[in-house]
Amino acid sequence: MAKGKILFVNQEIIPFSAESEQGVMGRYLPAKMQEMGREIRVFMPKFCEVNDRKHQLHEVIRLSGMNLIVNNCDHQLIIKVGSIPSARMQVYFIDNEEYAIHGGSMVDDKGCPLPHTDERLLFFGRGTLEAVRKLAWQPHLINFSGWLSAMIPFYLRRINKENAFFSGTKMIITLVDDGFNGPIDGDLERKMKTDNATAKDLRLYGENDYLGLMKAAITYSHGVIIGSPNANPELVAFAKENKRNVLDHIADRDEFFARINKFYDSIVGASKFEN
After folding, report:
1. Contacts from 30-34 at CB under 8 Å and sequence distance 24+?
2. By mean pLDDT, which of 14-23, 97-106, 120-129, 197-206 is the weakest?
3. Which fold has domain 5-267?
């Protein structure tokens, strides 16, 4: 069986977040792939409710300390790591004091994105990939889930223009039931321009509501996993109409994960995974 390196970027992972479809996928899918011989790394945002002492998190000094420029300001990237002992799985956390997320959610009580969510999107997307570069761990495949990770494809393309570290890395987006109401506040287009966004980038990410963000991420991805029976039907239809490689959801988790494992091989190519 082909093995290879898979980077999982998840907005939610239990026990570090409340139990949800996305949190369950974030917890059990990487662990299952590791059991099947894959080499994995797992990243998620550091919500304030993730207690450092309770979960025995510690800062990874060699990965932390770099400054990322967002909206023409420097923001320190802090990387912490914890583990899920029962799964023998480490989880890396993207942290920053200015962009701290309270309440374990990116939306308010009306389901609308919090202030400065546009900058959190940029910081989390770029910060994750920069941390992976500092790890000197080149993944064959990135499987990302949750709308906070929607800028991963944009930054992967940008980094590859400057540095070939992620050359050949494929991207798969997992769609779950995680929509929000209304647009993201701020000026995402202007802030993307400072990160050398192309006209195509700006056109795709121009609709900065949930559907717009996710359609842009789907367009730049090589495959789409329907991770929930409640995934937005317009996004599912968009992926199929635009001839993305799509893996439909099935209820049996063991069988679903087995199909995902084969799906990874079909996207990357089994022979390449063995290299």
Report:
1. 30/6, 30/87, 30/89, 31/84, 31/87, 31/88, 31/89, 32/257, 32/261, 33/6, 33/257, 33/260, 33/261, 33/264, 34/87, 34/88, 34/89
2. 97-106
3. Rossmann fold (3.40.50)
